[in-house]
Amino acid sequence: MKMMKYIAFVVFAVMLVSCQKAIEIDLPEVDQEYVVEGRIEVNTPPIVILSETQGYFDEASVESVFGTFVHDAIITMTNSDGNTFVLTEICSSSIPDSLLDDVSALTGIPAESLGFFDYCIYTSLDPNAMGEENKLYHLEVDIDGKILTSSTKIPGIVPLDSTWFEVEGDLDSLGFVWAYLTDPDTVGNYYRWYAQRINIHTYGVEAGTVKDPFPIAPFGSIFDDKFFNGLTFDFAYNRGEIGNLEGQDDEGPEEGYFKTGDTVVIKFCSTTRENFLYIRALENQAATAGSPFASPGNLPFNIEGGIGIWAGYAPAYDTLICE
To answer: Which residues contact 26 (CB under 8 A, 6 or more apart)?
Structure first.
């Protein structure tokens, strides 16, 4: 009887296999779009990265990613005073030292690593092109006759009232950076938090190097004043990370924490609603990557004729010694 059941099972399995049919799906062609990633900050020149989208099923490699850069575009920026500046394309090792930190913050690539890639930006070295508070900046991109446009504003600087370090719970020396903020009594203020540890590693292969190569924005770095307009309040942030580029003392129990002895430069930025919506959606997608319950969707953008973001930032700086 058992033998008969076994034979029946084998016959059934063979029937299932024989009924399999190869299914071929013709994926529709997706039009390529141009992507603008740009920013203009107070006392900083404009920086624009111009690229093309890749198909979801296209081969992904370092070469293919850097092959999406768009070269030889004509990019101009006009401020609210009517002054127009032509942005020049600069690649990799030709990027001036004065721009390395800003390019690093925009790309997430440490300054010392930029020379290893054929990484290209568009910028202006004219000192009059530096960002100013409360000014509008219009961007126009011409790619072989294809025109992309966008406008943004650098809002007014809103400094933090005070900052301090506080050990978390019963942890020995690990904690978060806290701040007091007085929000202006006008609805529609948007902020983004960055922090950079400028003290050096004291042991291991990274001894003698600065802990953070540039200001880092942690998850949840951007927020608005919808629930605290005109109020003074305190809040805290954990330490942001740069993917797999962490130092040897940043893993394990120290992950996400600042610690006693760190010297932290806080970069607290006012920004625009469009940038708030873009970064918030970007962080939400990153946080839910791979989740079957996440809703797919395109990021909101402010580029006419393409996708991406042209953002204005007004940073205020504070330096804190964690003790």
So the answer is: none
Highest mean pLDDT, choosing among 209-223, 237-251, 304-318 = 304-318
What are the tens digits of pLDDT across the range 116-143?
A: 677 889 999 899 999 999 999 999 999 9
Distance CA 232, CA 156 (A): 18
Q: How far apart are CA 323 and CA 316, in angstroms?
A: 22
**Helix runs in 172-303, H state only:** 273-287
User: Residue 250: is it exposed, middle or buried by C-beta count within 10 angstroms (0-12/13-18/19+)?
Assistant: buried
Residue 27 DSSP label = P
Q: Confirm or reject CATH 1.10.10 for domain 34-154, answering yes or no.
A: no
Q: What is the pTM of this model?
A: 0.83
Collapsing DSSP to helix, strand or coil, 66 comes out as helix
The answer to whether the CB of 225 falls within 8 A of the CB of 187 is yes
